[in-house]
Amino acid sequence: MCDLFIPLGVAAGVPYISVILISLWASDKSFTVKMALISSILTVLGFLYSPSGGELWKVLFNRTITLFAIWVTALLTLQKKTFEDERIKMLEEKKKLIEETKVLKGLLPICASCKKIRDNEGYWNQIETYIEKYSDAYFCYGICKDCQKKGHLNL
Fold first, then answer.
1. Does residue 140 sit in helix, strand or coil?
2. Phi-psi map region of 78: left, alpha, beta (phi>0 left; psi -120 to 50 alpha)
3. Residue 96 in contact with residue 107, Cβ under 8 Å?
4. Per-residue confidence at 149, pLDDT binned at 50, 70, 90?
5. Is the pTM of this model over 0.85?
6. 100 alpha carbon, distance to own chain's centre
7. How many CB atoms neighbour CB 141 within 10 A?
8. Does 25 score more than 80 pLDDT?
9. Beta-carbon count within 10 A of 122 CB
10. Which of 55, 41, 42 is nearest to 8 (CA)?
11. Which uninterrupted H or E stretch holds 23?
12. Does an H or E element contain 146, and which?
């Protein structure tokens, strides 16, 4: 609106860019696009309805620079919002993975007889195979002293 009171030789693009930068705080991307459109329309209306004055080529050049600045700012704002949305999505996925990992650590269905563990697909696996698959642990075998005394050498 301030364009209507400024002579044609001057383009007041800074207030319009400020409005678009303020749209960074809005969560909706369409708000940024709407503000850029409104700013562009006001810039053109300012050209059409401002008091006469200035050389035409300077007037057109100033308005073109203003429109360019408005849309570059809007595109950069939209890009920042997109990056922020992606970052939030990645954090949510990370949180979900951490929660799923806690479930794996917290509850393992194990056979009371043979000690096999049931995986997420419902298959029963040797405890060693399951743990090696879902962790960085590896097994090496030995026989404890109690089993040595009892003669249990089930290898």
1. coil
2. alpha
3. no
4. confident
5. no
6. 21
7. 6
8. yes
9. 7
10. 55
11. none
12. helix 145-150
Quote the distance between the C-alpha of residue 68 and its chain's center: 27
How many whole angstroms separate alpha carbon 65 and alpha carbon 48? 16
At residue 106, φ and ψ (nearest 5 deg) are -85, -30
CB atoms within 10 A of CB 6: 14
Q: DSSP assignment of 62-130, as one string?
A: HHHHHHHHHHHHHHHHHHHHHHHHHHHHHHHHHHHHHHHHHHHHH---B-TTT--EE-TTS-EE-HHHH
Number of residues that make up the chain: 155
Nearest in space to 20 (alpha carbons), one of 34, 30, 38, 35: 35
Read off the DSSP letter of residue 4: G
- pLDDT(154) > 80: no
- Whole-number Å distance between alpha carbons of 84 and 68: 24
Residue that has been written with the tokens 């995986």 in this structure: 119
Distance CA 26, CA 136 (A): 44
C-alpha radius of gyration, the chain, whole number: 34
Q: Sorting pLDDT into bands at 50, 70 and 90, what band is 85?
A: very high
